[in-house]
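I trust your eye. Have a critical look at both lines of this record:
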Amino acid sequence: MAENSYPKEPRNSVQRLRNRGAYDYETVHTIIAKAPIVHVSFSPSAEDPFPTILPMIGFVGSFSAPDAPLSSGDHDLYLHGHTASRLMKLPANPNATSTTEEGLPVCVCATHVDGIVISLTPFHNSMNYRSAVVHGYATTLTNEAERLWAMERITDGVVPGRWADSREPNKTELQSTGILKVKIVTASAKVRTGGPGEDRKDEKDASVRGRYWTGVVPVHMQYGKPADAVNNKVGLPEYISKWVSTNNVDGEELAHKALQESAKAK
């Protein structure tokens, strides 16, 4: 196994366009950390042949080493949900046929689209993207100190600084909030950057190149102007307006950076 990387196994190995694959901790963790939503897939029961997939809020971090960088292998994946949901109940259910001694097997995916790549022919149309897929075992978090830490990190992962600038959760709210801790076993990322990858024959054909536009349309998430709630009584906090503007600038720069790179275009 390469240093600072997840083990490369059949389960997580990128098969097609392997040059786009990455297994290092930093790439995988950063993609997940930047995603507003992750999708969690699991088997609800042995009797049900269909897997279930749910959009959830999560983050990667280490309770024992909270300041560890994303390049560290100490990180776990934490997922937030209501305690009444099926996914939150399964890991703690000793009778659940889909749960093992290590926990509930899950697959979690995060994806960012950075550009729509338009080529001379539809076959070569593509997207610039960053995606990560992790496999691991989910367990229900019961340590109250770690639960509170995870709730704070998840809250601030959506809007930095919001946990401290909110009313503290009451007993009922805390009891209704479930946290799953996923021990990551294997993971991989796949990233595409650059412009169109054209057929060699088309590249040399002036009649084709002179007839159709090719290029990249940058894509990035844009946060709008914060709107006051109907019963809001205070002014917009500076940290929220700064977070909005910073994310909009960073997202646009990342999308344009992706289209300018060419190493992974083919």
About this structure: The mean pLDDT is 91.
